[in-house]
Amino acid sequence: MLCWTISKAGGPKRACHAAVAVRNKLYSFGGYCKTKDNMDQMMDVHVFNTVSLCWKKLPPVEHGRGDGHLEVPSMRYGHTGVLIEDTVYLWGGYWEVFYNVLYAFDVDAHRLFKPQVSGTVPEKRCYHSACVLGKAMFIHGGCNSGYTNDTYKLDTSTMVWSVINTRGTAPPVSAGHSATIIGTKMFVFGGCDRGWLWGQYYNTIRVFDTETNLWMSTPSAQLLPGGRWLHSAFTYNGELYIFGGEKNNWTFNEVWKFSPETFSWKKVEPKGKGPGPMQGRCCCMVGDHIILFGGYKDRVTTPTDDLYILDFSPSLKTLCKLTVIQYGLDQSELPHNIRWELVAMTTNNNNNNNSSGHITGTGEVEEEWGNCKKSFIETCEQVLGYRKSERKDWIADDTWQAIEDRRDLKAKGNREPDREKKEQWRQEYQQQSRIVKKKTKRDKRRYVNDLACEAEVAAGQRNMKDLYRITSQLAGKNRTISRPVKNKEGKLLTLETQQLERWREHFHKLLNRPPPEITPEISMVPNKTMKINCGRISKDEITRAIKKLKAGKAPGVDNISPDILKADPKATTEVLYHLLNNIWDTEVIPTEWKTGLMVTLPKKRKT
Fold first, then answer.
1. Distance between CA atoms of 148 and 374, rounded to whole angstroms?
2. Which residues share a beta bridge with 46?
3. At what angle do helices 363-383 and 569-586 cross, to 10 degrees?
4. Across-strand partners of 74?
5. Which of 183, 264, 280, 304 could cross-link to 16 by cystine, CB 3.0-4.6 Å?
6. Residue (of 297, 205, 304) closest to 246 by Cα position
């Protein structure tokens, strides 16, 4: 069941921008923003966290060539972006001039740069399509002074461009179409051939086989969506979906589904309140969710800042939250995390054109830390499991049941918020503790008597081996004997009072030394500027810190011991890298890291 679940405003106002999804984040690059002052700047990068539902703007990068081939692209729209491994490749676009320079964005380092390429570079253009198959990026169509239908390929393993000499009947020249990879085939839909007011708009599907470089002949579908351009396209479970688009200044907000197996279209009606008619939106797939944002209604209006999420498989939890929001139900009795999620779903962002780069809320760091902690704990539970306590043989089954009952009473008392009921549970716990102690003494007495009888039988039979074994069991582990204490003359002290007095003398002399006769001269350290790296945290720094942790230490409130982190420093570094840099950028520390753990050590009273 398709369902529109979230609608939020307050993001960057952009249209015809480029965006990719990387794990639980969306990265948006550039786009048309109506204001000329903004368009004359360097390309900006906005990040949307799909967990906290917050936008942030990355700090601007200096323009220049101080870092090898570093060069930040200027603001533009009509360009494309694709993700290959951990690198986003940006190409083409337009703002007063057309572009054909390839730029790359390192997702881990948050760095834009210009890689060196070779081969046959495509002509400058915008409103083309780009899609990925393996490590290759395919570029098709687009426009500059005219319109084209050529196809290019960039092999990112060698960074070589090549023009594809296609076979078969190619699609007509167009721009603003979509190209989507399903399997090894590229499906091209829509587009316009002569401009947005007087051109021809296409509504047919054309299929390109990337293995044979053949434009395949395709059957005609009976039911077709209207012709359009600047629509959004994505795939889910091997089927192609399109949303929105524009034709002759008339925009759409319908969702269509195309099945490659039957080569047929079907109009889809998602549940919930979806976006209005829109063109130039970006869409990204995150799990079972499609996230659409940006775009504009027509060529005259300002780009929008809203965001919508289309859920292909909404969970019962999601549906319940939507019901709470729809009917305005009371949230006071809900768990804290559910209330936080409801606030995130209904609160608009406040991050338009924010250049500070800080996150609008602290929930992102909290949620990311929760995901990291969950991955550590769940991995340990699956691989190691919990330590099983050894059950002593001499304790009877009814005694073990009494112990379990006492444990349940303690847990109920700890969870009870009411003081009077909490006191009742405490009294029941004390009564159950007396029963446990009584039964334990009974079992211990029975166990010792049985061992004594066995020892008596073994002694009568002169079975020294069994007699020694039984005696060892009764005696228990060997107790350490305190070391002897001697006085200054080397004489052994046997009385406890004499030993304590000797210890007093020792520490009095040790801790009450006279000051040194010669005071050392310590020269003042010259005031030098120390070179301290205040940039983002590197993976090497995290790995070194993990290796320096002391093993065998008790875990804190997160139940993660240093031994877990040191088991695989490389994997731990990958898990913590994004979290620690997020904390460094936002200066927000997870609440759990500020919580101390106080452990009471009960001691027996002196009689």
1. 50
2. 28, 57
3. 170
4. 42
5. 280
6. 297
Q: What is the pLDDT of residue 69?
A: 47
pLDDT attached to residue 299: 59
Each residue's pLDDT tens digit, 358-416: 334 455 788 788 888 888 888 888 787 777 666 677 888 899 899 999 988 988 888 88
Where helices occur in 3-156 by DSSP H, the ranges are 36-39
Domains of the chain: 3-361 (2.120.10.80), 397-475 (no CATH)
Tokens encoding 270:
């998602």
Tell me the pLDDT tens digit for each residue of 514-527: 888 887 777 776 76
Strands (E), 415-540: 485-486, 492-493
> What amino acid is encoded at 484 in this protein?
P
Q: How many residues appear in the chain?
A: 607
Tell me the β-bridge partners of 144.
none
Alpha carbon distance 342, 487 (integer Å): 73
| pTM of the complete model | 0.62
Q: Which of 59, 58, 30 is nearest to 43 (CA)?
A: 30
Taking alpha carbons only, the member of 606, 597, 592, 582 closest to residue 25 is: 582
Element (H, E) at 104: strand 103-106
The residue behind tokens 């924010």 is: 354
In this structure, the strands spanning 246-247 and 239-243 are unpaired
Q: Which long-range contacts (CB under 8 A, 24 or more apart) does 578-582 make?
A: 578/108, 578/368, 579/365, 579/368, 579/369, 579/372, 580/537, 580/542, 581/536, 581/537, 582/359, 582/364, 582/365, 582/368
**Token reading at 39:** 């368009």
Half-sphere exposure of residue 285: CA atoms within 13 angstroms, side-chain side: 16
Nearest to 161 by CA among 104, 113, 116: 116
